[in-house]
Amino acid sequence: MKKKYSLRVQLVFILLIFVIAVMGLVYFVQTTFLDDFYKTNKIKSLSSVAYSIADMIGDEDFDEIIEHMSMSNEVCVRVVSNKEDYCYSGPCTLKGIDNNTINMIASEVVAQDNGEKLFDNFRYQRHFQDKPEDVYIFAKMIEYDEERILILVSSGITPLNTTISTIKSQYLLISSIIVAMTIILALILSRFILKPIKQINNESKNLSKGEYDATKVATNSLELSELNEGLEKANEDILKAEKAKKELLGNVSHDLRTPLTMIVGYGEMMRDLPEENNEDNINVIIDEAKRLSTLVDDLIDISKIDAIKLELNRTEVDLNDFLSSVYRQYEKYCQTQKIDFSLKLSDDIKVSIDEKRIKQILYNFINNSLNYNNKDKQVIELGSEKIDDFYRVYVYDNGEGIEANDIKNIWDRYYKVDKEHKRHHIGSGIGLSLAKELLEAHGLNYGVESQKGEYSKFYFDIKPV
Ligand code: ADP
Question: In this predicted structure, what is the pLDDT of residue 361?
Fold first, then answer.
């Protein structure tokens, strides 16, 4: 397995690598190219002085200007013409150059197309020094008043070895200080960043028990706050699921036990009392067995939805035909029960649905309308209506309705508004959560409008193909 490091170590490591890389680059550039930078700059300043002098030839205060220019640029200037020979600035290397050398320089400059030349390996021996000095001379020849004037600008070359070694030792010191500062910075940063992460980490160990406490995490970071909120939400969901699981077990075992008791009871009664062996009693046993079967079907469906992504088998169907077939399933039953069950159709459109699944949803809506309808005159309506560019398929009932607070929860699995749930009709508390999963798989908008004690209208919206 790959070795894992704490975030603190990683942060220190990354920052150190970055700083060392930057320092190394600066060090390399400074020490390697310093010499070249120096020479290039020197040459630039020599040539620019020579050009300025060339422009000023003929000025009244030529002498002063040139003196000032050579001082401020720390260069030596010598202007030689057929008539005059000026030499400016104090310790001027050019002063001591003899006429032969001047003539040699002049002839080399004249030979250039642009009338200028840089002598970058000129050795000059001053009379009071042991070793000859290396100088740069920039020479430019111009014509003025039919006179040929040679402008010479020169400067000594300071050997940079000492400068470079100073820079090197300075770098060692600066690098050590920066590395130390980086480590301190990384530790401070990691404290800020890691503290809330550690808190989240500690708290998340309690998540499986549903004991995540978001208030124990203090952070100003947006991302970490979101993570904290996400875990808090997961914690709530875990608690909810835990509670729902307990409720389901209670409900399911109750729902299983009751029909089983009835089946066993009626069976024994019919065995012991031959006169009770009649159609009515057999029907009770069949009804109760069907109730068991529906409950088991619901449970199987819900476990399927959990296990695999639901696959839909869509076909194009006539919405009105489809709704009529659902209506017919309940028509007889409602007639015998004196329930006012009606079908209200809108335009005949074609829709693309998984017929079996959508039927399952509508059966669930209608079963609920039968279950939760305690009015003397029960009214249930199955229908479709056009709203904007879509059609709303609904099941309306004038039943007990749903409290506003409960509306958002009824689509949750195992949620039952009334804990003392009724047994007159089949219901496991998972019907609507199944409907929700199936409608979402279809990509359909769905919902419920309801008024406690007045009515409920469960619906989904569908567009024609
Ligand atoms: P079940 O009906 O098995 O309890 P459902 O998931 O189908 O489970 O419904 C969840 C809850 O929503 C029901 O327990 C009930 O409280 C409420 N409910 C659903 N349909 C209606 C309705 N038509 N009228 C009133 N309450 C309803």
Answer: 92
The helix/strand/coil state of 429 is coil
Residue of 379, 432, 433 to mutate, ligand 1, most atoms within 8 A of C-beta: 432
- Rounded CA separation 117/96 (Å): 20
The 10s digit of each residue's pLDDT in 22-50 is 988 988 888 888 878 888 888 888 999 99
Percent of the chain topping pLDDT 90? 26
pLDDT mean across residues, the chain: 84
3-state helix, strand, coil in the chain (%, to 5): 55, 20, 25
Stretch 252-265: mean pLDDT: 79
Give the domain CATH number at 58.
3.30.450.20
Domain carrying residue 84: 12-162
Residue with tokens 């990354």: 14
Which residues make beta-bridge pairs with 386? 391
Helix axes 431-442, 355-371, angle to 10 degrees: 150
Residue 259 Cβ contacting ligand 1 at under 6 Å: no
Note whether residue 222 is domain-resident: no
Residue in 412, 410, 414 with CA at minimum distance from that of residue 248:
414
Provide the token pair at 403.
Answer: 């409290």
Determine, yes or no, domain membership for 202.
no
Tell me if 418 CB under 6 Å of ligand 1: yes
Q: Is the CB of 244 under 6 A from ligand 1?
A: no
Taking the chain, what is the end-to-end CA distance rounded to the nearest angstrom? Answer: 54
